[in-house]
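Posting this for the archive.
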Amino acid sequence: MKVALFIPCFIDAFYPEVGIATLELLERFGIEVDYPQQQTCCGQPMANSGAHTDAAATERLFERNFAGYDYIVGPSASCIHHVREHLTALEQTDEVKKVRASAYELVEFLHDVIGARDFPWAEFPHRVGLHTSCSALRHLRQASASEIAGTPFSKPRALLEGVSGIEFVKPARPDECCGFGGTFSVTEEAVSVRMGQDKVRDHLNAGAEYIVSADMSCLMHQQGCAERMKADARFIHIAQVLNGARA
């Protein structure tokens, strides 16, 4: 199994500890991981802003970096969704199609590909509110949506249940958007902030000590809102919890 680690640009710049935890976690399962040194952005910010053709050079670099791997694993649902569904500024050669089909978000790779359920090295004795991002929920189908009838499920929760000491609390509106939405948080700042504040309050009212998510961009937004609210809320990426972080 040839696995490449894709670290989104904002994680590389602001949250390198999340990238390190992702790498260490994969290696705990005996996976040999490559990290293409020339990787940069996947092109999502430009494409999300409507500048699809302007993303071509970035997408081409992504394709060159990650061609030839069986799996491309990254800790970000929105970035993986972009690669899988919207890497369309390029001619759709066999190589590009292969890269798109090989892209997996960390949770789905652990849950679906290698079948991870137990994390004996991990202990997290805290009350946790789980935030599943819109991209993870609506695009990658990592959890059931409340408006769709069916048996409830959550892949990130299934993984976290393998961590000793963890206690889950459920916010009143568990799959409501936190308001980040990438460039939405810039173009609709006031709406974005209010949604983020509501999300933080919902988790805290449920009794959460930590808000855990597989998407650091959502946590970044919520943490900023919490700090300005002077709310007693803490945030941590799921990779860090699964890799054994205590706090």
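The mean pLDDT is 94. The beta strands are 3-5, 33-34, 71-74, 103-105, 127-131, 167-169, 210-213, 234-237.
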